[in-house]
Structure formats: structure tokens, C-alpha cells
Specification:
By secondary structure, this protein is mainly α. The chain has one domain. The protein has seven helices and two strands; from the N terminus they run H-H-H-H-H-H-H-E-E.
């Protein structure tokens, strides 16, 4: 299967907000597809080498994936287009929540995870705008430096990976099952474990 047919097949799996973005940005949609795949592969590779906290669900790997994705997008297109795609993706997550459907990570989306992603998308766009002509590896290194410096956001968890409220108490997932607004706590990306 070639890349074009793969991209075409993936189009039909997109949410309505993401399809709308593709329709309104047809000249950069192919690049966006490639960069989206690249960001996923790069974040998966970081899981293998323990470069960050190893947490793809609200942790540093999750923050990396969004910031790297948007940085690479901002390198190849106007930054506003990149941010619009990030927002379309989060709108898709809200739609998935309303339909009680899991997101691409297999979890029911929530407001704090969406807020985290949108914040990290903005940091990524700023990185991409500031480093327009560097390599993907240089972007990767810059995003990791920003994560270690605490410039991105992650969800506060204890050393066992259990999500915490901002007061440090454990989040009772049963109490908030099926709710959009969950009192998870966003912290700087260098704030590991409470």
C-alpha cells in the first residue's frame, strides 16, 4: 500500500472537525498526515529508550507527542493552520466523550486532558515558529529540553501512576466516571510525582 492510499484510507477514520480541517486546508493536508504519523512514531520510540517519564497518558510522553506534532506542523505551514488542526482534534475528543467513545489512546476524553493538549500544542507551535529550518531531531531535542525545564503541562500523578487532585489526594475514577469535568491537576512537565 502506498502513502497516498494510506492517507486516503485514514481520512475516513477522522472525526468531522478533522475532516473539515482537511477540506479547508487541502494543500497542506498531506504534509499534516505525514507529520501526524511522524509524531506518533517519535513518541513511541521515546517510550523504548526511557528518555522521559514513560507515561503516554497524561505524562511527559503525551506532552511530547502534542508539542512535537505542532512544532513540526508550524515548520511546514502557517502556525494558525497548525493550531486549528490541534483544536479540531480536541473538538473530536469532546464529540467522542459525548458519544461515550474512547479516544486514540483508548480512554474516555476529559476536560483536563484536553486543556493539557491545547496548552502543549501552543508550546509546540512556538517552538516550530522559532526553529523553522532545523531538523526533526533538533525539534525533538528542543521539545525534550522544554519538558525537562517544566515548560509544558502534564497531569499530576503519584509514583504508582494514579492521577491526583491538586490537593494531592487520589482521584476516585468511579466518582467521576462519564463526566467531562474531572478535578485532575495540571502541573509543569518537570513536576514528577507528589
Amino acid at each position: 500500500m502506498n502513502a497516498q492510499s494510506s492517507a486516503f484510507g485514514s481520512f475516513w477514520k477522522l472525526s468531522c472537525p478533522e475532516k473539515w480541517w482537511v477540506f479547508t486546508h487541502p494543500f497542506v493536508a498531506k504534509d499534516a498526515f505525514k507529520i501526524t504519523r511522524e509524531a506518533r512514531l517519535k513518541s513511541d520510540s521515546l517510550l523504548q529508550i526511557s528518555a522521559l517519564d514513560g507515561d503516554p497518558l497524561g505524562g511527559q510522553i503525551d506532552a511530547f507527542r502534542h508539542a512535537y506534532w505542532m512544532a513540526r506542523m508550524a515548520q511546514t505551514m502557517k502556525w494558525k493552520k497548525a493550531l486549528r488542526l490541534g483544536k479540531a482534534h480536541e473538538k473530536a475528543n469532546k464529540i467522542s466523550f459525548r458519544k461515550n467513545q474512547n479516544d486514540e489512546e483508548g480512554l474516555l476524553p476529559d476536560s483536563v486532558s484536553s486543556e493539557m493538549d491545547l496548552y502543549n500544542n501552543q508550546v509546540g507551535v512556538a517552538i516550530g515558529c522559532n526553529f523553522k529550518s532545523v531538523s526533526g531531531q533538533a525539534i525533538c531535542d528542543t521539545v525534550i529540553q522544554n519538558i525537562r525545564a517544566g515548560k509544558l503541562k502534564i497531569i499530576l500523578k503519584n509514583e504508582n501512576g494514579v492521577e491526583l487532585k491538586c490537593d494531592g489526594t487520589q482521584l476516585d475514577k468511579n466518582e467521576f466516571a462519564g463526566k467531562w469535568n474531572i478535578p485532575k491537576c495540571l502541573v509543569n512537565s518537570n513536576s514528577l510525582f507528589k
